[in-house]
Amino acid sequence: MAELDAANLMKQAVGKAAADRVKSNTIVGLGTGSTTAYALEFIGDRLKKGELENVVGIPTSFQAEVLARKYGIPLTTLDVVDRIDIAIDGADEVDPQKNLIKGGGAAHTREKIVDALAETFLVVVDSGKLVDKLGSTFLLPVEVIPMALTPVMRALAKLGGKPELRMGIKKAGPIVTDQGNLVIDVKFDAIADPAELEKTINNLPGVLENGLFVGVADVILVGEIIDGQPTVREF
Amino acid sequence: MAELDAANLMKQAVGKAAADRVKSNTIVGLGTGSTTAYALEFIGDRLKKGELENVVGIPTSFQAEVLARKYGIPLTTLDVVDRIDIAIDGADEVDPQKNLIKGGGAAHTREKIVDALAETFLVVVDSGKLVDKLGSTFLLPVEVIPMALTPVMRALAKLGGKPELRMGIKKAGPIVTDQGNLVIDVKFDAIADPAELEKTINNLPGVLENGLFVGVADVILVGEIIDGQPTVREF
Amino acid sequence: MAELDAANLMKQAVGKAAADRVKSNTIVGLGTGSTTAYALEFIGDRLKKGELENVVGIPTSFQAEVLARKYGIPLTTLDVVDRIDIAIDGADEVDPQKNLIKGGGAAHTREKIVDALAETFLVVVDSGKLVDKLGSTFLLPVEVIPMALTPVMRALAKLGGKPELRMGIKKAGPIVTDQGNLVIDVKFDAIADPAELEKTINNLPGVLENGLFVGVADVILVGEIIDGQPTVREF
Amino acid sequence: MAELDAANLMKQAVGKAAADRVKSNTIVGLGTGSTTAYALEFIGDRLKKGELENVVGIPTSFQAEVLARKYGIPLTTLDVVDRIDIAIDGADEVDPQKNLIKGGGAAHTREKIVDALAETFLVVVDSGKLVDKLGSTFLLPVEVIPMALTPVMRALAKLGGKPELRMGIKKAGPIVTDQGNLVIDVKFDAIADPAELEKTINNLPGVLENGLFVGVADVILVGEIIDGQPTVREF
């Protein structure tokens, strides 16, 4: 890494702080995104130096899988473990109660499966992701099976959202998730009760998972640039 | 239909009673199963005789689609209609509050999408499907994405169920649904609060849909054999 | 359409020429892409004016389906027709023998299913798509099931190609097709025998379909700008 | 294994003979089916006894994965190996040239991906699977994406076959494969040129893979009962 701009230096600092929380003899959920990518790199460094031993990763996405191989983190699957000790993953919005919106990369279903199983779910973000109310700046992603697209969009509008289908780039038609489904991005002006909305949307027939992660995150590591220097604080 | 045994005569009677409820100029959800198959046949008969006009069907399954074509019922999709007037479908268990367990044919996700949209959801069953408590005689089917199989089975066991993966016949390994997912059949001794359990299971990460249909059914047509004669009653 | 630049005027002219070839009482395969989109618009116009009657479309993609509904072209499916009279679709490369490379939009599997069934397959392109040898300017897209990604990439390299996985935008990890598969884009310096390469790649275990369309196209409509004017010629 | 009938004793003998061919420090493709299941059990035994070391398996199916875990065979994936040394798998028909029909369990796509990569592909069958001409006793399975079902069935009929859609048991509608596709079973009276037919069918738009394995098998282990005793011969 020759030169990094301030934003990347900050992501790197947060990733390093997260990697420092990983202990030997643990199973680690490996998240998706650019800050998490730094965390994976630093976990790999610590394994190489012998600072860490016997760490096994469970990837939340194809990206995490590729990076884990690159950085020498052994992988396993949910079928052979009975717990996840810590998961490290990013978020698109974080509210003061540590509730999240995720799904900008359309990977939130697999992420929620892994993150929700972790004893400790460590979220890595920059300060721009902190919001007072979820839904203020980011659309809520909802994964839906293709057949249910139209009725689910109508149901989401009835819940007060402005839904739109996420369209593909370098692919005609809509984005398709790793499960073969579509993603509806929903504008809510502000989400009053995230716990209730999460359950209500997941109960819509044809919805697989939505991007609300309520009561899942345990620790938030926030990167900021203060006086031109990258800093990391926890809340 | 040359000769039919008593059970089939009863299914036929229920199917006919359901077909008689369909009106002209309506959009009809077409369910799955042997009793519903008779309903589709009788709807086709009424269209041919001119008793019914301008009826369009929305199939819940491949089976319904094939039968609709066979019996001359024009088809459309959820993307082009703004309502469903009536849906006709079977069930594996029906409780006194008209709550259902469905999913013996692994088609409950598509069925719930269609049935839940219908202005009137008409359930056609024989009297053997009536139970005091859901879960008494039938396992609860839960559709889950493959990656989440093991954690969802553990979560279902924590909810008090005895889960087992539904295995295939004429297919190595498990049954795969029309969406590419797996089915876990869960034994609950009796389901105390179906509405709560439906939401709780749908909120498990990786679960697409479960076989509980709570507050969806409007009319139940029940076939019985009384004094050797097929009869149909409504509740 | 208020103002159109020269490129769009040319696409519009080609789309119009294609729409003019459609006859009443036919089943029409509806392709994907910006030039084809104009063809669909003009077919819709001709239906509205009454110039055309009883035209039914079979979409090759989600995009075609949405546009057909917008322009009032009734749709059907491959399960209910016994032929396709004409298909209109774009291409990424066209050689002098009317062989094509398609798949820039990752829709080539569904496009080949429809286009190959058509009595007449009409290709609409601008002159920039004409090449002497396939593979000169465009990568060859190969759709592969996820499990076979690595061995298929190796097999394609052995065939002389430089394969790379097509990555997603607005989606973490790779592009996923409408069938839930991945796309490998392969650089071949020039494809000596397209017919043989098409079969060889389709015979690789795990490959669903590749972007070579050999012996499928019947008519090529080519748009060009000559003296600042959009023109259309056939070859 | 308390008591086994003659057929199972024979399968067990063939499975043991196959397991005896596995060497230390190899990557082994793990097939599907009842005879292969015995091979996996005996590989596990040899690993436990220390007769074999450093054997890693690549499963062809969910069944193989579950059995490998049960018998203590470590697993890996195609993404992290650069070769497969030996694959052990069953077959539904074997001709004198060691060409096969597979796919009775709808797993032939994943099986072909693994088996075709193996340095040595070892087929385990009982003598009832030996035929003079492929297609004599077993239908040829063809995996097809749902959208292409009808045109592919027509194309198969034009090739001289009698195609039928494989229907599900404990699942309404057709069998769905692990890739989310359908299976067409095709009756050919006898297949004159398996190599040509394999390529021709794989080149049909919408076909993923068919059950013909031509030039893939290296060694056939055949179980027979002679004078009431299970015997194994190689050809």
Based on CA inertia axes, which overall geometry of chain A fits?
A: globular
Largest interface (CB < 8 Å): A-B, 25 and 25 residues
The CATH class of the largest domain in chain A turns out to be: Alpha Beta
| End-to-end distance of chain A | 29 Å
Largest sheet of chain A: 6 strands, mixed
Mean pLDDT value of chain A: 90
Helix content of chain A: 25-40%
Proportion of residues in β-strands of chain A: 25-35%
Radius of gyration of chain A: 18 Å
Structural class of chain A comes to alpha/beta
Number of helices of chain A: 6
Q: Total number of β-strand segments of chain A?
A: 13
Number of domains of chain A: 2
Order of helices and strands of chain A: HEHEHEEEHEEHEEHEEEE
Poorly predicted ranges of chain A (pLDDT <50, ≥5 residues)? none
CATH arch. level architecture of the largest domain in chain A:
3-Layer(aba) Sandwich
Oligomerization status of the protein chains: homotetramer
Predict the CATH topology of the largest domain in chain A. Rossmann fold
